UniProtKB/TrEMBL annotation:
It holds the Pfam family AzlC. The keyword Nucleotide-binding does not apply. Keywords: Cell membrane, Membrane, Transmembrane, Transmembrane helix, Transport. GO terms for biological process: L-valine transmembrane transport. InterPro entries: Brnchd-chn_aa_trnsp_permease. It comes from Faecalicatena orotica. This is 4-azaleucine resistance transporter AzlC.
Length: 242
């Protein structure tokens, strides 16, 4: 148990940026959910058992007449398709974690993925416990935010129009932060260009999956060049997600 206590203590400072983001977008989700007439406890339960970030925001619109089960499956897949690619890059790392890997797979969000890939594990902490601590802390922030939002909306009614933009704002902040820290920005540029092209071709409702495919194809073609640039600019460093 002491090993876990140390892991959580070491992991917490790295998760503070996620805390500030998840707390507020969790509150926004709780408010949106309560607006549909549901108890705050349902928002908490959804954040515990679903924990899908933007997928939860989308799911708020599923609780209306006329939405078929097939539509729910397809829209959820399109919104969260990027997690397939996240998982592929972490297969080996999660495999070494034993039974913990099942929760790590479940708890893999955009922000958690970013931390797992960029955070160096402290030498005096076991890697599997440190990574698990990051994932658990991140989800706890989201759950707490959902509870606060649901309770606030039930006791202090207010106009929540536009609050769903909180998730978009968080993605923008994460992108800017990674852009500022990255030594090789070519993959980010490829992603942005791919997104803009696919947005024009496929429209806003279905451009995510084509964007991922196009980005991967371009990155695969440019892999050797990108590896050379990365190795040249990061001599002596190891990429965590490899």
């Amino acid at each position: 148990m002491s090993g876990y206590k140390k892991a959580f203590k070491k992991a917490f400072p790295y998760t503070i940026p996620v805390l500030t983001g998840y707390l507020f977008i969790g509150i926004a989700f709780g408010v949106m959910y309560a607006e549909k007439g549901y108890s705050a406890w349902w928002a908490v339960l959804m954040s515990l058992l679903v924990y899908a970030g933007s997928g939860q925001y989308l799911a708020v619109n599923f609780f209306v007449p006329g939405i078929s089960f097939i539509q729910v499956i397809f829209m959820t897949l399109m919104v969260n398709i990027r997690h397939i690619f996240y998982g592929l890059s972490l297969l080996e790392r999660f495999h070494r974690m034993g039974a913990k890997r099942w929760y790590m797979i479940f708890g893999l969000t955009d922000e958690t993925y970013s931390l797992l890939c960029t955070t160096k594990v402290p030498e005096d902490v076991e890697e599997d416990k440190f990574l698990l601590a990051i994932s658990l802390l991140d989800q706890s922030y989201w759950v707490i935010g959902s509870a606060i939002g649901g309770i606030l909306k039930s006791v202090l009614p207010f106009n929540a129009e536009g609050i769903e933009f909180a998730m978009t704002a968080l993605f923008v902040v994460i992108f800017v932060e990674q852009w500022m820290e990255a030594r090789n920005r070519i993959p980010a540029v490829i992603g942005v260009i791919s997104a803009l092209l696919c947005l024009q071709v496929f429209g806003s409702a279905s451009f995510v999956f084509p964007t991922m495919i196009l980005s991967i194809l371009v990155l695969f073609v440019m892999k050797k060049r990108l590896d050379r640039d990365t190795d040249h600019g990061n001599e002596g460093e190891v990429e965590t997600c490899r």
